[in-house]
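Apologies for my clumsy wording, but are you able to produce some protein sequence, whichever is easiest, and the tokens describing how it folds?
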Amino acid sequence: MSTRIPRERLQRARAAHAERLRQAVADGRLARDVAAAMMDPRMTRWRASVGFAVVDDFARLSGPAENIVKVPAGLAWGDSRAEVAVTDRRRLRELYRVVLADGTADQQAAILNPDLLRSFWQPGLAEVPIMDVWESRFPQLVEGR
């Protein structure tokens, strides 16, 4: 059973969180669009607290389009192996979901293939605020839909 947090305490916590994000943007440690997404009420509290990365250039995405994708240990989930076959669309989509939410920009560049990412790009691939940031940076994800 969860305990309700008093409204005043919750408002103070949100204000402090917003101030930390504003300072991170001002210091150049966080992109403005990512900070805005972290304050979006649709973002889960956990994700809002830990943040997420987004590559700075779509052209950096160079993940494999065939054969095997190597999964870094920090991104492996559940009983997954250290590799995912590109032909296993279900597991590959799940890997892409994890990489969008938890991967560093360098991991995203190494794992995500631009054509495969476009083929998987639909609601539910990541939290809405994360997808909004990707779509605003890379309109080619939604072109032609």
In short: The chain has seven helices and two strands. The chain has a mean pLDDT of 91. The longest helix spans residues 7-26.
